[in-house]
Design a protein that fits this description.
It is built from 4 helices and 8 strands. A hairpin with a 4-residue loop joins β2 and β3.
Length: 179
Amino acid sequence: MNRDSLLALLASYEPEQGLEAEMHNDTVDFVKQHPDCFERSLLKGHITASGWVLSPGKDSVLLMHHRKLDRWFQPGGHCDGDPDVREVAMKEVMEETGITDLQALKDGIFDVDVHLIPVNKDIPEHYHYDIRFAFKATEGQEIVLNSESKDVQWVPVSKVQHSNDSESIMRMVRKTSAL
């Protein structure tokens, strides 16, 4: 599996100092050590991709209430072997929210996060090495729910902390002002 394009994206990305920089370095090491990093069958962890989708006016962000994790997050998911993480992020946004017309707000990566996913039935706890991209939705699109979410909503950026105040999400809120 070709990891070169992801490694090039990671090399050109400048993470925030501190925690994100550590997670960025961990992600680079993980990708270099695991040729099968895009496969969810790699039980210790795998690369995922997600989209931070802003409204046309860039004042709201699209969040989904994740059915399995019972929390609000940006849409995203598994690469399932696809090394084109930007395409995976767009596909996941479309599948999970129904929003199909997206415009990139930034060349390259918007954020990198590593988080532990708890045990779920026969799947052991594992890490998601999440590569995040910033998009803007075009006007007039309707949200469509799928089986992975309890709800999908446009949340004002200034009120995201009421839905999810984790550092992972709040870091993207802080970065939103630069888009």
